[in-house]
Amino acid sequence: MHKIAVAKGDGIGPEIMDAVLSIFQAAGVPLEYETVEMGKWVFDKGFSNGMTPEAQQTIESLGILFKGPMETPKGKGVKSVNVTARKTWNTYANKRTFQTLHGVDTVFSKAGIPIDITIVRENIEDTYGGVEHLLTHDVALSRRFITRPGSMQVIRYAFEMARKKGARRITCGHKANIMKLTDGLFLDVFNEVAREYPDVKADDVIVDDLCMKLVSRPDLFDVIVLTNLQGDIVSDLCAGLIGGLGFAPSANIGDHISIFEAVHGTAPDIAGKNIANPTALLLSGFGMLRHLGLMQVAAVLENALLYTLESGLHTGDFGNKQDKPLSTTEFAAAIIGNIGKIPQHQPRPLLADQPPTPTHFKLAANPMLESAEALQEKVMGVDMFIESNLQPMMVAEKCLHHTGGIFQLITLSNRGTQVWPTGSSFTNLVNQYACRYESASGEPVSQSEVLELYSRLMQDFKICSTELLNQWGEKKGYSLAQGQ
Ligand code: NAI
Fold it and tell me: Is 175 helix (H, G, I), strand (E, B) or coil?
């Protein structure tokens, strides 16, 4: 029998987890559970990552974590245990499924527009690295990591999944028109992988347009793959389309460890009242059962849930406001009572069980993710980020003194907009400039030449940060300032 780790979580977590496990037990789901210590109270006990070392060891040896929502204590400098878990165990693909559920009324269900959308959100990179700095008292900077290998693993997962499910379409949501290097890289990898799957119809949509299209014609979409932050926002939008967070399941898939949880949080406003809706966690549990190859029992239980929803039973967060809502435990009991019943709409077929999705447990060392570099890298200059509250002309005057015959000053920008050599006096300024120095000869520069420039420039300014201007062949590894 497969053994999995279970963390009940905080707030409504224990109530909805108990409800789901009671449904599993009633259906004889062949799983053993080992409860692990994770969540707010573990932070409070002094474990700064929100889990005990024993919990970490158990999860790493079992490979599957079924978890309730967990609260991140505010203002204590600790990071979210949810994000830590996803990143520590490289659960790189966040799969969230949003389907019309009969009995859960929405504007779309009333209009007869069916929804069946799977969001695959990159789960590790992007601004969720939380690598942030205050460059000056007034200027905060967040680093957004989009990597080729990181994009490759999640996009490949999305295509494999789309092919397996016979998806009508796979769409990449992005903002590559603005973030040409980061989102541009994600989109390039998407197009590259798409060529390996000629049988899957692939296209891309700019994320703002995607949001508009999702709320007007959600039925046109099937699988959508996005970077982390955009995926987070778009998936909550999709949760709204099908009736809210109470119906949004989530799977964090990795090659070694996978985590199954609801999209929603701990709902502190209703915790301890036995009124929370366990459906999202239950749907996440079905995803977990299918991941483990337990297709039959997943279908039997999903049919019981669909039958229950169709019959109009509901918790307080949805359904007909005239009826008395059921409590969490009553709702779970109703589903248990409907085990074996077949819903009228979209009954799930009883597929044969399959071998579990392979989990690779043994890792001596984590392989360095690296892709081949096609061309020699050259350093063609440097961006020096300096603190100054002088006007652009005066900053430029000082900067021009320090070129040392090696560099030429190309541009000054403020929050990404060029303010020197040309610019507009209407451009708003903050006390932090980027000074772009490029090689004067057009030949690559050395790191020691950059360091010498740094020493000269710091006589006039505090240097907050630097970035090398890398180039591969004709491909420049840096963006141009607005107006440059
Ligand atoms: P939330 O999702 O907990 O609550 C938002 C609203 O939805 C509330 O009105 C709540 O009552 C309602 N709601 C959520 N789940 C429900 C359910 N199953 N049944 C009925 N109503 C439900 O979001 P919020 O308030 O922003 O976050 C609360 C805490 O949860 C925070 O500490 C946050 O960090 C944490 N959180 C944890 C997540 C996780 O463990 N994966 C995900 C999101 C938030």
Answer: coil
Using alpha carbons, list the distances in angstroms from residue 44 to 41, 70, 121, 123, 136: 5, 13, 31, 26, 33
**Cβ neighbours of residue 180 closer than 8 Å, sequence gap 6 or more:** 479
Report the predicted TM-score, pTM, of the whole model to 2 decimal places.
0.91
Give the integer Cα–Cα distance in Å for 336 and 345: 19
Ligand 1 mean position, distance from CA 264 (Å):
5
**Residues 236-253: tens digit of each pLDDT:** 999 999 998 889 999 999
C-alpha angle with apex 236: 230 to 239, nearest 5 degrees? 140
Q: Ligand 1 centre from 267 Cα, in Å?
A: 4
What are the start-end ranges of the H helices in 275-400? Answer: 279-291, 295-310, 328-337, 392-400
Q: Whose CA is nearest to atom 23 of ligand 1?
A: 265
For ligand 1, atom 39: residue with the closest CA: 69
Which H helix or E strand runs over 135?
strand 132-136
Q: Residue 342: what are its φ and ψ, rounded to 5°?
A: -110, 125
The pick from 74, 235, 266 for probing ligand 1's pocket by mutation, whose C-beta has the most ligand atoms within 8 angstroms, reads 266
Q: What's the 215 CA to ligand 1 centre distance in angstroms? A: 23
| C-alpha Rg value of the chain to the nearest Å | 26
Longest dimension (CA), the chain: 82
Q: Pseudo-torsion of CA 46, 47, 51, 57, nearest 10°? A: -130
Q: Is 481 exposed, middle or buried (0-12, 13-18, 19+ CB in 10 A)?
A: buried
- Atom 31 of ligand 1 has which residue's CA nearest to it? 71
Contact (Cβ atoms closer than 8 angstroms) between residue 315 and residue 281 = no
Ligand 1: lining residues by beta carbon, under 6 Å: 12, 16, 69-72, 82, 245-246, 261, 264-270, 276-277, 280, 317
Extract the tokens encoding 115: 């929804």
Tell me which residue has its CA closest to atom 41 in ligand 1: 69
Q: How confident is the model at residue 75 (pLDDT cuts 50, 70, 90)?
A: low
What would the mean pLDDT of 420-442 be, rounded to a whole number? 95
**Helices 228-241 and 207-216, packing angle to 10 deg:** 10
> Which are the contacts of 292, defined by CB distance < 8 A and separation ≥ 6?
2, 4, 31, 64, 356, 357
Q: Which distant-in-sequence residues (6+ apart) come within 8 Å of 378 by Cβ?
A: 444, 470, 471, 472
Can you tell me the distance from the alpha carbon of 430 to that of 412, in angstroms, rounded to the nearest whole number? 13
